[in-house]
Amino acid sequence: MEWKANWIWDRSGEHPRNQWTCFRRTFSVNSEYESARLSISADTKYFVYLNGEQIGSGPVRGWTSEWYYDQYELYGLKKGVNVIAVLVNHYGMGTMHYIEGRGGLLAQIDFYNNGQVMSRLLSNEKWKTATHNGFVKESVKMSNCLSWAEIYNANRFACDWEQLSFDDSEWDNAEIIGPYGISPWMDLNPRDIPHLTNEPIFPHSVKSLKAVRPVAQHYSIDLKPTYFPGEMDCNSGKLMQGYLVTELHSKEDTEGVITLTFDAHAEAKWEFTLNGEGYKTKNGKYEKVRLRKGANLLIVDVGGFFHEPTMHLTFDFPDKIDLKAPFGQSQSGFLAIGPFFSDTQLQIGNYFQNSIPFVKEYLEMKQVSNLSELEAFKKWALPIQNDHVCTDNVSLLSIFKDDLKTYPIDFQHQNMVLANQSFTYVSPKEEGDTEYLIDFGKEYLGHIEFEVEAAKGTIFDFFLFESIHQDGRIEHTFSLNNSLRYVSRDGRQVYRSFIPRGFRYMLLTIRNLKTPCKIFMVKVDVTTFPTGNIGSFCSSDYLLNQIWDISKHTIRMCAQDTIIDCPAYEQALWTGDSYNISLMNYYTFGNYDLVKRCLKLISKSVYRSPLPESHVPSGWQNVLTAWSILWMKACREYYRYTGDLEFIKEIYPELKLTVQRFQEFINKDGLVEISAWNMLDWAPMDTEHKIVTHQNALLVDALRQTAYIASILGENEDEMKFLSLADKLKQAINEHLWDEEEKVFIDSIHEDGKGSKISSIQTNLMVYLTDCADGERKAVIEKYLITPPESIVQMKSPFVLFFYYQALMGLDENEMVLCNIRDIYGYMLENDATTCWEGWELIEGDYSRSHCHAWSAAPTYVFGNLFLGVKPLEPGFTKVAISPNLNGLKWIKGSVPIPQGKIDIYCKNAGEYIDLQITLPEDVEALVTVTKNTRVRINGETKQTF
């Protein structure tokens, strides 16, 4: 691609928060041409239109210095005047799949004739631009991992701005940032995967209709710009001390409630004082309080350890209360007192101190009960800017509410979910807002689209979630603001959200409904990685079939522009997760290009951090040691399943560098000792130390796998070196991490040099799988795996179950695997799961945190191995092992994707013999292993009866 265009932007600055900017360029096509191609990129996301029709969006996620661009063949051009219009959303801060660069747009149309460029249209100062004020900038992030919640007011900007007929003469001219190659986008790569799908899915049904009354007032306050000025990352480890202060002005003495909410995983105080009276609260708790007439001093302790320091306050009193910042310093309603201390601690391999020193002034501030006492801290006062405060947080309004009345649902209320021209007629309620609960039948990830007819100012709030308990209780992950607000213009209108969201259930609440409205349609345009429905499994066991279906659907919803962990909560490419998920994907869809893209993105993180990062490319810089190691193993598995030698050559420098970096963390005892995030499972393992057993064991196997890759590439010296390192590390593990008295491998060694008193199934499982235990020790662990002792820590996530199933299958404990799967995944199905949960009891009282988590879809991999018995014997399935096993079932059938196509298996117990039918590509050599009395047919030909 020969770039001639310039990067352009508007006048909002380099890093505007939640900026939505429109660009337009009208141009004439007068001469003949054979083809026209648009090349386009933007930071952060773009949506491009040609003559009013959307033709694409992007770019895919990537490292800022190696950003991506897209190309489109322009078939919609007409002779004469045309217009290209682009909407750019710049985040202004990092997320868990984006590193803050700066706002910018780059676009170029090349017109071709006889294979040569005859003319070009370039992004430059001639393009027109305006801020799209329909998007409310004073929003709040959907979670600490994602971008801003979408709040759209259709009355604040022209609805036809992308049309050719629109008059943009009053718009500003764009400003040139610079040519291709400028910082931060030093290089641009063409999109390396196809565009995602756009599949319209209508809801399953409307489940309930209620009149509701939300909490009277609410405020979501982003403390980060005040307590961490200039930081635009998404880093966890934010330690701070300080307070948030406001005066609550009441017209009369009154009573009401206050709620204080933080991220569910924040290590916050959840403490506040009102006129000197202290309250200790928690998320979701209503605190009854009294206000006196006039000013009431509210002080919230915001000290603690945060990922994103955002807090939420709600007030519910008979009459509206006014909020004013003390000292009359600004128009803001809130003051920060502090920070008395703030720091961001990165877990990337170096020593970090995860504690907050208690500053004298911070402790003294705790005693303040009135304005006169607050005067002593005036020098610490900083106004919270109004654009850092959101008063349109749909999640708070949907959670903190009263149900006033439940109405019967006659059929006309189902019209909104039908794929026809019928509509649901909605009349204003006598009291409160109208709330519909809509079930989409399954969890999906996509863009909400709806069509309504309503009066100007009618508010449509969409609150999305994943799970409802049998008693009707909704699981609220308090850190997830999965929502959309749309304020309607007058008349009939269609809106398609610009931000993809993961959910199954939707609360649609209609507010400010003064005259009846009509809802013609609500749907979700599902967006996933485009793929054939190749992998399959079906059997005589209905429960196992259901388990396969929800597992496969989980994998599909977590296949986006990378593999992602979950569609709702994070949408992040987690390095360790992708090891398991890629193996599952090989047996369901065979998305080799997607896996390759993920492994390459992960490899680039070694140039920012000492080891491959825990998730990439991310505004949260973090090293999770086991995840770094699993990336090494995933590269080997990718080669095993694809035979892609060119990829191995490309990735090898980063693999070798990773080995070298790990050597820097080997201590005097020959063990890996590292200050990083050293977890493996959401279980009470003793791994918050520098020397952790499971990651030492995993590294042994990763070194062996990397040695194999070195041998394939003819790097024999590296091969021998890596094998030697693996042998030494295995020896050190057995010398220092085995508890001879307890006959178990311990979880860790503490900083005082003493071995942990805690051991776990997880640790011993990893030692076993990586062949770090021999002889008697190996035999002892095998007993633990078959009969886990109650005295050691048990597994708490399906992520670890994946490895557990591998070990049990290796021990021929197939029935034990199937019993466990029926138990764990059957429980999910019993509780209406349509996808696989992240874990169990991760949040008190809830089934799970994430209800669609790809690391949990282990049955896809297990069934491909345990039932269908398909495994590559040589890279890329040029030679394959096929050993189907009914495991007590009457029949099984399924398909496994391979690079050459697919392998179909049908196996049935016919009474006197086993009927086995195999279909596979002709150029694939098969080694078939069967039990006695099996009749084998391959590609329709009977081979023999064994």
Describe what this molecule looks like in 3D.
The chain has about 950 residues and is an alpha+beta fold. It is about 20% helix and about 35% strand. The chain has 16 helices and 53 strands. Strands 11, 15, 16, 31, 32, 33, 34, 35, 36, 37 and 38 form an 11-stranded mixed sheet that branches. Strand 52 and strand 53 (about 940-945) form a beta hairpin. Helix 6 packs across helix 16 (about 860-865) and helix 8 runs parallel beside helix 10 (about 695-710). The model has no long low-confidence stretch (mean pLDDT about 95).
Task: Give a nutshell description of this structure.
The chain has 946 residues and is of the alpha+beta class.
Kindly state the mean pLDDT as a whole number?
A: 96
Task: Tell me the radius of gyration.
Answer: 30 Å
Strand percent estimate: 25-35%
The poorly predicted ranges are none
Helix content: 10-25%
Shape: globular
- The class by helix and strand makeup works out as alpha+beta
Distance between the termini: 59 Å
Major beta-sheet overview:
11 strands, mixed
Number of helices: 16
- How many strands? 53
What does the secondary structure layout of this molecule look like, with pairings?
Layout: E1 6-9, E2 19-29, E3 35-43, E4 45-50, E5 53-58, E6 66-73, E7 80-90, E8 104-113, E9 116-122, E10 128-131, E11 150-153, E12 172-173, E13 175-179, E14 187-190, E15 199-201, E16 205-214, E17 217-222, H1 224-227, E18 238-250, E19 254-261, E20 267-268, E21 271-274, E22 277-280, E23 287-291, E24 294-301, E25 304-306, E26 310-316, E27 322-324, E28 335-344, H2 360-365, H3 371-374, E29 381-383, E30 389-390, H4 394-399, E31 401-407, E32 424-426, E33 433-454, E34 459-465, E35 483-487, E36 491-496, E37 501-511, E38 517-526, E39 536-539, H5 542-557, E40 573-574, H6 575-588, H7 592-603, E41 615-616, H8 625-642, H9 645-663, E42 691-692, H10 693-712, H11 716-736, E43 738-739, E44 744-745, E45 748-749, H12 761-769, H13 775-786, H14 798-810, H15 814-830, H16 858-866, E46 870-872, E47 879-882, E48 891-898, E49 901-909, E50 914-919, E51 925-928, E52 934-938, E53 941-945
Parallel strand pairs: 6-14, 11-35, 47-51, 50-52
Antiparallel strand pairs: 1-13, 2-7, 2-10, 3-6, 3-8, 4-5, 4-7, 8-9, 10-12, 15-38, 16-31, 16-33, 17-26, 17-30, 18-24, 18-25, 18-27, 18-28, 19-23, 19-26, 20-25, 21-22, 21-24, 28-29, 32-38, 33-36, 33-37, 33-38, 34-35, 34-37, 39-48, 40-41, 42-45, 43-44, 46-47, 48-49, 49-50, 52-53
